[in-house]
Each structure stands twice: as structure tokens, then as C-alpha cells.
Amino acid sequence: MERLAGKGIWVTGAAQGLGEVIARRAVAEGALVVVADVKEDAGRAVADDLGPAAVFIRLDITDDSSWAQAVPSVLGHLGQLDGIVNNAAILWMGSLESMSTADAERVMRVNLLGTFLGIRTAVAPLRAAGGGSIVNISSIDGLAGMNSVAMYSATKFAVRGLTKSAALELGRDGIRVNTVCPAMGNPEMSMPWFDQFDLDRYLARVQQPAILDDGIPRTVDADAVASMVLFLLSDESRTCSGGDYPVDAAWTAGKLCPGLPGF
Ligand SMILES: NC(=O)c1ccc[n+]([C@@H]2O[C@H](COP(=O)([O-])OP(=O)(O)OC[C@H]3O[C@@H](n4cnc5c(N)ncnc54)[C@H](O)[C@@H]3O)[C@@H](O)[C@H]2O)c1
To answer: Which of 107, 169, 106, 174 is nearest to 142 (CA)?
Structure first.
């Protein structure tokens, strides 16, 4: 049985990266999907490749009127909305002191305001469908801070707060709201910021050596993140709401101390 059979799912930032993988997996699980993005050519190519189950809609998640205009087209394709994945976001890396006010505002507008507008826009159609699932994509940077991503991290923490309040407000309408916190998934997003570092060296330093060497796989790929999103979109997660779901191979679980028993 397909896990999303008959469901209508709207994925933002689905022209590439994690959003594209989520859209592809959702179609494979029987959903009708809206691929939404500001990148028109790439988004349309993804939807075309997915066939009649998918359609592309141009959406700027920071723009109220863009959301309002999208709703009739979304419902026209899906029939009804059963789930939305607020996935689109932007990264900015550099020292806190070097970040301009304009860059800080841009990160807040896309990652935080955009997610808020996505939740707010989805409420009425989800309620009309008798309930559904909102999945907001945060990050491990929304669970713990990290140098070089202060404002990105702040917005990803805020997404978790939005999620919890929304879950409390919307539960009575049968609308579940959850956050997924991936450690990785799409190296393309951060590669432009890594000119001066070696990504493998960075990952080797920041992760727990025992986890790296044996056992849980070291890299979290987009497919692993999409599996969590699919679970939260499906009825399998019908009792899950207001939660944070890390997909991080225990990265944020705590400390592993050499020399102590259990190391
Ligand atoms: N890349 C990773 O390893 C990683 C790790 C943790 C969390 N995340 C989170 O996963 C999500 C997806 O990341 P990704 O790596 O696929 O990013 P990406 O940069 O590859 O893709 C993001 C997509 O969002 C779109 N987008 C940006 N601004 C938009 C706007 N205003 N309106 C509509 N669309 C817009 C972009 O055009 C792009 O297609 C993000 O929320 C990101 O913070 C990613």
C-alpha cells in the first residue's frame, strides 16, 4: 500500500536539493504533489519529470500575495490539501560581525517569515480537508548553535517554536505540525560557503569519532531526511504533533567522553 495514496502534498523549495527528493518520494508513495519554488526552469523540469501527478507553481515564500495567488492553482491540481512541507530556506555563512543587516533580514524573511506564511496559508485548506500535516524543515542548527551560522541557526530555532505553538493551536482541527532537523542532506547548499574549508575535515572534526568509525552511517543523505518527512506526512504519524525529529546520526544527542566506560 502506498503510504501517501490519494493525498495532496505541497512542497516548497522543491526545484532542487532536499525539496526535490521529498517531492519525488511523495509521488512514488502515491501523492499528488505541487512543486513550488522561485526557480521556474528547474522547478518546472522536476514537475515535468514526475509526470501528471506533479505540477510546478511559482512561489516566493516571503511574499504574501504569492501565497494567496498560489492557493487556487494548488487546490486545482491537488483537489484538496492534505500536507505541506515548508522546506525552502537560504543559508548564510560567515562570522556574526561580518553579517550585514540586509543579509540578516534576508535570512529571517526567507527562513522564518516564509515558514510562518506557509503555515498560515495552509491552515484553511487543511481544515477544509478535515485535517492534515504540516512539516517544517529546520536543521541540527536549530537544536544547537554553531559558529558561522548565527542568524541561520536563530531562524531554525524559531521554526521549532513556530511549530510547537502552531501544533497547540491547530490540533483541534486535526492539523498536526512537526519539525524535521537534518544534520545534512544536500551538500550543494553549503558548498558555496566552503571555499576555505575542506568539508570532509570539518565533518570529521565535528562528529563523534565512535559514531563515525562504526555503526550508524556517517553521512545523512536527502533520502534519509525524506523518509522522516514521509512518515510525518503519512497517517503512520497520526499521534505525532509539536515534535522535533532529528535525522542526525546522534550528532546532537550529547557528548561521547573518551576514557569513561561505554566509550
Ligand atoms: N543542505 C543540508 O545539508 C541541510 C541541512 C540541514 C537542514 N537543511 C534544510 O533543508 C531545507 C532544504 O535545503 P537544501 O539543501 O535542499 O537547499 P537548496 O538551497 O538546495 O534548496 C532550497 C530551495 O529553496 C528555494 N528557495 C529559496 N528561497 C525561496 C523563496 N523565497 N521562495 C521559494 N523558494 C525559495 C531555492 O530556489 C531552492 O530551490 C532547508 O530548509 C535547509 O535549511 C539542509
So the answer is: 107
Structural domains in the chain (count): 1
Per-residue pLDDT tens over the stretch 110-169: 999 999 999 999 999 999 999 999 999 999 999 999 999 999 999 999 999 999 999 999
Domain of residue 69 covers 8-189+221-246
Q: Which CATH number fits the domain that encloses residue 112?
A: 3.40.50.720
Residue 196 falls within a domain, yes or no?
no
8 A C-beta contact, residue 154 and residue 109: no
Taking CA atoms only, the protein residue closest to ligand 1 atom 13 is: 18
Ligand 1 pocket list (CB less than 6 A): 12-13, 15-19, 37-39, 59-62, 87-90, 110, 114, 137, 139, 182, 184-186, 188-189
CA of 192 to the centre of ligand 1 (A): 13
Catalytic residue ranges:
152
Measured in Å, how far apart are the chain's first and last C-alpha atoms? 42
